[in-house]
Amino acid sequence: MKKVLFVDDEPNVLQGLRRMLRPMRSEWDMHFAEGPEQATDLLQSHAFDVIVTDMRMPHMDGAELLAKVMKSDPTIARIVLSGQTDQEAALRSAGTVHQFLAKPCDADALKGAVQRACQLRELLSDHDLVSIAAGLGKLPSVPDVYTELTRELNSDDASIKRIGDIVGRDLAMTAKILQLVNSAFFGLPRTVENAEEAVSFLGADVIRGLVLSKSAFEAFNTKCEGFSIENLWQHSLIVGSLSHDLAKAESATKATIDESLIAGMLHDIGQLILATGVPDEYRQARALARENNISLREAEISVLGCGHGEIGAYLMGLWGLPDGIVEAIAYHHNPETCPTNVVTPLVAVHAANALIHKCLDGDDSPESVLHEQTIQAVNCGTNVDSWMQLTREKLECKDAA
Fold this sequence. Notes:
The structure is a single chain. By secondary structure, the protein is an alpha/beta fold. Helix content is about 60%, strand content about 5%. It folds into 3 domains: about 1-120, Rossmann fold, CATH 3.40.50.2300; about 145-210, no CATH class; about 230-400, Hypothetical protein af1432 (Orthogonal Bundle). It has a 5-stranded parallel sheet, with helices on both faces. Helix 4 (about 85-90) links the parallel strand 4 (about 75-80) and strand 5 (about 100). Helix 7 packs across helix 11, helix 8 (about 160-170) crosses helix 10 and helix 14 (about 270-275) crosses helix 17. The termini are far apart. Mean pLDDT is about 80; it is low at about 210-220.
């Protein structure tokens, strides 16, 4: 039974939550704290899986409370359920909040958010790795991109399009901005799928705050020898672009095409987490993969007990990214885990990643294996040759650039 803590300084709100969530008593062990002081006492005496808190409270607001929770136990999923709040508080909590929910919030939406947080928490069984994933609310980014974006933001004629182009090239920045723009705090009635839309909606001033605020974007200097953030980003960028094109070529829905792009860009974000959080173990896993000619995922599981797909999906899921994107990140090396008869972001990203490795590393590379059953199930078995041609063209364009 999962332990969930609800925090609000209004007794009537807590009473309403008790009534609304009564049907969940058989699944959740629920506790209700009237303000951050009671919450702090409960956190000291109970091991909670999820905390759901209001933002505006006297003496200590939700952002401060969640910062303390993250420091004391980063494995707890951290959700804000709040009414009107100010942008400063939202930006200040960007590195500590996994998901925003807006009041009034219906029972199904709240149940879904908590259940999803619990399910994603179970994705990893190793407590140390859960701590790494949940604790890294701020991810490293490519320094050159930060410099370029800051220069553009400080110019007199800053362009939303140019800002969007710059943001879209950066793995961590894209993930963080999509997390925020798609949160209920901003009240957007639809999901924003790309960086330029996000920048256009948030505005240059908010983007400036995100980039310049250490609480939102604080780069980590990975100590993993031989690991290149720049190389990871270049690979992720081309996988995202090819995933988009493959989904489009198979006449997938617009939502699938858009999510394929984002999922491809973020599919290896777990590598960034591992290289930053456990550099020695991750270096060992990379060496094992090279020496034994096995896939990196196999080596990661051998050394760490978990692959980069799972740990990346865990964090992206807690951040509230769409299910299709999270699924593609989690299982892009083992798509048979989620069988389907239509092209999904998972199918597109799996194929794009494998085909790029096949072109660059050869058929013998353990990273270039296409799961034939998955490809056949979506009736694309005869299309692999045309996919390969599309991949070669994509790589040629990259080299020309």
